[in-house]
Amino acid sequence: MNARKIFAKAVENWPAKVLSIATAIILFVFHRMSTLEERFFSVPLIVEHRSGLMPSSSYPRMIRVSLHGEANSIFPIQESDIEVYVDLNKFQLPGTYVVPVQWRKTGTAQGVEPLQITVDPMEISLSLDLKISKFVPITANLQGHVEPGFNLTSYSLNPAQIIIDGPAGLMGGISELYTDPIDLDGRRSEFSVTVNILNRDPLIIIRGTGTTDFRGNINQIISVRNIPDVSISVTGVKEGLAGELVTRTGSIRLEGVNQAAVNSFSLPPEFLKVDCSGISEPGIYVLGVIAADVQNISLRIEPPEVQIVISRVSGDEES
């Protein structure tokens, strides 16, 4: 009898009691939620796809992540410990697909409770195409000018070509890749620099480090002038002897860094000569052709040596 009274008392006005309990639960949850903190940041989107296909259209590279939880739990979480990704491995044919954006916890985010994670956007549309690879040459992107009076004579890149991966529809239009700008301003000697390889399309993947080593060879500009048919004089012939050249003219090649000096050079008299002062007997000799001194200009004489016939002069000829 007492049990019946207790039961009757318990179920008396039960709708109001159920409503009160529900309200209490809602208030508890609301209070609990109101004491939680929210944190926002963006992380790179990871695209997981099978080796034969790859994205062929633009897609969001960064995804906004929202963490909802207790302040002392969510703020120590490293941004790199929330990985956001789309899984394309189930797709086997080229086409356009709508896929959900998913997330997973790693590192400091593991074991944190309560923790609510949401991402924005929650899904993306992505086109897939066949993945192909090919070698492409690298071209140096040279900018500026070397110091006046100098010239970039040659350069090399190492590597000079690389392998790139990309969707079939885009790869046909890529025949070369350029480096980041390489500044030549004011340079006057050989130099080396490591530069990035410029990738203007994020859908193209460059294998390796994405850099190349540039080496430039810079030399001073040398002005050159050739003067032909220059008379060769004979000097120093001893008394009683006479000398006759087999070759009586030569040519000179002028080289210098001062172009004005090279161009304005004027031949003085007897500029080329052979010195016979060391010859005391008749005969045929080979002597070097010598030139007068010239400041700041290098000379090359052709021929460098000539034959000379030395003969004795008779008494009658001397008189």
Whole-number average pLDDT? 87
User: How many domains?
Assistant: 4
Shape: rod-shaped
Query: Major sheet: size, sense and barrel closure?
Result: 6 strands, mixed
SS class:
alpha+beta
- Gross CATH architecture of the largest domain: Beta Complex
Number of strands: 24
- Briefly note the CATH topology name of the largest domain: RNA Polymerase Alpha Subunit, Chain A, domain 2
CATH class category name of the largest domain: Mainly Beta
Q: Quick gist of this model?
A:
The protein has 319 residues and is of the alpha+beta class.
Topology at a glance:
Elements: H1 2-11, H2 14-34, E1 37-48, E2 53-55, E3 62-69, H3 71-74, E4 82-87, E5 95-100, E6 102-105, E7 115-120, E8 123-139, E9 142-143, E10 150-158, E11 161-167, H4 168-171, E12 177-178, E13 182-183, E14 191-196, E15 205-206, E16 211-220, E17 223-235, E18 241-245, E19 249-256, H5 259-264, E20 272-275, E21 283-288, E22 290-291, E23 298-302, E24 305-312, H6 315-318
Parallel strand pairs: 1-4, 8-12, 9-13, 17-20
Antiparallel strand pairs: 1-3, 2-8, 3-7, 4-6, 5-8, 8-11, 10-16, 11-15, 14-16, 17-19, 18-24, 19-23, 20-22, 21-24
Provide structural commentary:
- The chain starts with a helix and ends with a helix.
- With 319 residues, the protein is of the alpha+beta class.
- The longest helix has 21 residues, at 14-34.
- The strands form six sheets. Strands 2, 5, 8, 11, 12 and 15 form a six-stranded mixed sheet that branches.
- It contains six helices and 24 strands.
- The chain has helices at residues 2-11, 14-34, 71-74, 168-171, 259-264, 315-318; strands spanning 37-48, 53-55, 62-69, 82-87, 95-100, 102-105, 115-120, 123-139, 142-143, 150-158, 161-167, 177-178, 182-183, 191-196, 205-206, 211-220, 223-235, 241-245, 249-256, 272-275, 283-288, 290-291, 298-302, 305-312.
- The relative contact order is 0.10.
- It folds into four domains: 2-32; 33-130, RNA Polymerase Alpha Subunit, Chain A, domain 2 (Beta Complex); 136-220, YbbR-like domain (RNA Polymerase Alpha Subunit, Chain A, domain 2); 223-318, Beta Complex (RNA Polymerase Alpha Subunit, Chain A, domain 2).
- Mean pLDDT is 87; it is low at 27-31.
